[in-house]
Amino acid sequence: MKKILAADNLCYSINETKLFQGLSFDLFEGKAIHVLGGNGSGKTSLLKIISGLSKPTRGSITKSNKKNVCFVGHKNALKQYLTVEDNLSLLEVDKHNDINAFLKKLELSKLLDVMVASLSYGQQKKLALLRLFLNDSDLLVLDEPCVGLDRKSQDILCSFLREQKEEKKALIFSSHISLDVDSEYINLDKAIS
């Protein structure tokens, strides 16, 4: 089984406040890790470090993946003043072979000319998740992917994530909503002393 990522003695502080320290773990292809912890425990910070968007205060991350990391943050990163179709273009998924199938599955295909600001939060979340559904990465990093999603959309997401694991992709995510995805756990509330 191929190791996708190794975290060695990770520590992260904001100003003088340590969020977590001494955190070490490995993530293998076809496996998932669910990051747990209370508000402010450093879940988003850890996921940003894994994605390469932030640096740890101490420690290191070694990635062995060949392709880019797919990161979907808890903020939807959409342009509110543009249409759904314009956002798809900005996300660079508008030409993907499977775009129409996912637009239909997520009930977004009739909303292409609607301004994102006019969508419900759940619809915006589904739009943001298209970069996950249409990814070509070995490592999927998700920060609270179910927030705002109805049960049907959560089921679509979990089914997709299970398929990705079967395709040997690695997954690390934070979620206060239980995902029906077989995972190991890291509890950041226990990674501070």
Structural write-up:
The chain is of the alpha/beta class and 193 residues long. The chain has one domain: Rossmann fold (3-Layer(aba) Sandwich), CATH 3.40.50.300. Helices cover 27% and strands 27% of the residues. It contains five helices and eight strands. It has helices at residues 43-51, 84-90, 99-105, 121-133, 151-166; strands at residues 3-14, 17-28, 32-36, 58-63, 69-72, 139-143, 170-174, 184-187. The strands form two sheets. It has a five-stranded parallel sheet, with helices on both faces. Strands 2-1-4 form a three-stranded antiparallel sheet, covered by helices on one side. The longest helix has 16 residues, at 151-166. The chain is globular and about 50 Å long. The two termini are 33 Å apart. The relative contact order is 0.23.
Strand order of the largest sheet: 5-6-7-3-8
The CATH homologous superfamily is named P-loop containing nucleotide triphosphate hydrolases
How can the largest sheet be summarized? Answer: 5 strands, parallel
Second rung of CATH, namely the architecture: 3-Layer(aba) Sandwich
Q: What pattern of helices and strands is seen along the backbone?
A: EEEHEEHHHEHEE
Overall structural domain count: 1
Strand content: 25-35%
What number is the mean pLDDT? 90
Number of helices: 5
How far apart are the termini?
Answer: 33 Å
CATH topology: Rossmann fold
Mind telling me the CATH class? Alpha Beta
Percent in helix: 25-40%
